Amino acid sequence: MTPPSTAVPAALVEEWVAAADEVDAFEVALSLAAKVSRDDEAELDRARLLLMVGRPGEALAVLARQHFVELPAEPGASWPYLLLAACRAAVGDDDAYRRLLSVVAMVPGRWEPLYLVGAAAEQRGDYGTADQAWTALVQVHHVVTRFTLARFLAGVLARRDRDDSRATLRAVVEEFLVRDPDLRTNPRPILAAAENLRRRGDHAGSALLLRAAGSRLPGVDALQATTIRRPAPLRWMHVPLLAVAAAIAVWCDLPPLVLAGLVPVLVVRGIAARSRVRGFSAADSAAWRAALRWRQGPTARSVDTEQMLVGGLVAAIVCTASVPIAGAFAGAVAGRPAAIARTVQYAAVSGLVFAALSVLLTGAGLGLLALARRHNWRTERRARQASDRYRLSDAGDCRCWRTTALTGSYAAAYLGRHLTPAMPGSALGRCPSTGALWLATTDEENGQLLLLRGADRPASDPSAQPKTANGYL
Predict the structure, then answer these.
(1) How do the residues of the chain divide into helix, strand and coil, expressed in percent and rounded to 5?
(2) Assessment of whether the complete model's pTM goes beyond 0.85
């Protein structure tokens, strides 16, 4: 959409700035704020926005123009000096950082200073403190946006159990899916969390997150393009080993001997299952391999020990029963079974026939797994579509009286079902119920649609002020 061709009142733009700030679209808020002249209080907000987007030097320059340069001798909870301490801490001032933390500790129930602590700590490399700030925002104050969610879950994965990281990895990916319904069409929060892990030096955690998310969301191209590939054990390695064992079993006329071929298969797979991926710990390597199995689908049933034992017994019976079948085929192919019995030629042909049977059985098993995987993902897709229909079912109802900003798919649905174009070819929509003007724009950082609400008229217009009688509405 293109911006409106007519001049927009400054008060309306200020409301859009506040709405963008509410959903942590800091870049959008900065861009809008640059279009209007602002008072001293608004300049403080601009300094805070600059800090949040990682530009503390520019924020300090804005504060200096407002005559906030030096911190007072006595620490206090004054917002301008708290902001000044955060900006100075972000550029490496240790004393300002200590004062910031000590002052925030004096107001434990407030959530606004947590943004300053998180941004300052993150930009100076103190990720432990930053993680505490983002965790408090999400879990204590329930401030959940794409900005806070990516940082919170990156911190959760960075603190994963070094002995068993699979549960943490799965929980992080599922938490992303629960918190952000637009993740399948726009996985920017996952990419932001992976980048956060790389910045703190946790390259294994970043690779794990991308692989797990790519397995859990196989249709998202952006995740598939960034997933690091690692070589997996050969899926067909059991075929030649069992074929050799089958040939020996035919030679010795002892069909159960074919099970000896399973020994090297189990040994190789056991070594592969316990080997470390280069640069990973043992627990991260196990999580790396486990993430690949998630491609079977979220509704796939887990296999317990009893089922594994039953499956192994069935496989052993099938392998043993296949040996005389291979011998009979070998005799039929050779043409003279009595003359070539218990010879190298007979054993070799039997091994080849057994290999062919193994390929057929393995292919059939893989085909069944593919069908089950397709069914699982189809079931998950139908459940997700039903959930999306329910989530967007009220997008045609008026929310202008209680909501200042909407994002993602809900914003798109609200724009199409409720708002009417304020003027042709513009990015403005008008609420038919309240007359509120909404700005439709795109948050480039998150790649999602934003709807920002403004009033019908500037607040400074006297006719827009409610009439009062003796101080009462």
Answers:
(1) 65, 5, 30
(2) no
